[in-house]
Amino acid sequence: MNGVNLETSRLLLRRFEMGDLEDLYEYACRPEVGPAAGWKPHESRRETEQILAGFIHGTEVWAVVLKETGKVIGSVGLHGDSHRSSSPEVKMLGYVLSPDYWGRGIMTEAARRVISYAFEERGVQLVSVSHFSFNSRSKRVIEKCGFTYEGTFRRCFLRYDGEWLDECCYSMTREEYFLEGAEKFC
Question: Which GO CC terms are listed, alphabetically (predicted)?
């Protein structure tokens, strides 16, 4: 990523900044957000500040900013895939969005832009993505982006609260991306 900004009609995807603390905390503390992604809701601004510092110093996560308001409403990133090769040519898509913006196609728009970046600008060979079996909203984003379902790892993720979760896994190869029509991703 290295400081690359990405845009869509409604969104700016950019590096996080310390000034994003309040916006990030606003959605990260909500009980419907973190557990769906496997992490506990943030209990304090201090906890959010520590996570934010990691985002700022890392190179894999973009802040999802609504152009209309300038507000950070989520994040999207390309990470190493823990189920596959550690090659930089294989990436895993991850994302989170404030519930205030669910159901508007915003995360699909952001995810498609990042997928386009991965294949067209980074030369990635495969992008994977997964969701926990109960997370139907994330499943819908994945389906709208055109990923292929690979299977479900049963009880493969131990969440912070001690619950074992099933992880539904998907992928898209570079060839599939270009075959399906890259123009729909921009």
Answer: cytoplasm
By the 8 A CB rule, do 45 and 51 touch?
no
Pairing state between β 6-7 and 90-97:
unpaired
Express each pLDDT in 26-64 by its tens digit.
999 999 999 999 999 999 999 999 999 999 998 889 999
Q: Which of 157, 97, 109 is nearest to 133 (CA)?
A: 157
Phi, psi values for residue 172, rounded to 5°: -145, 130
Enumerate residues 6+ apart whose C-beta is below 8 A from 143: none
For residues 167 and 151, what is the distance between their CA atoms, to the nearest angstrom?
Answer: 8
Residues 83, 77, 35: CA angle, nearest 5 degrees: 75
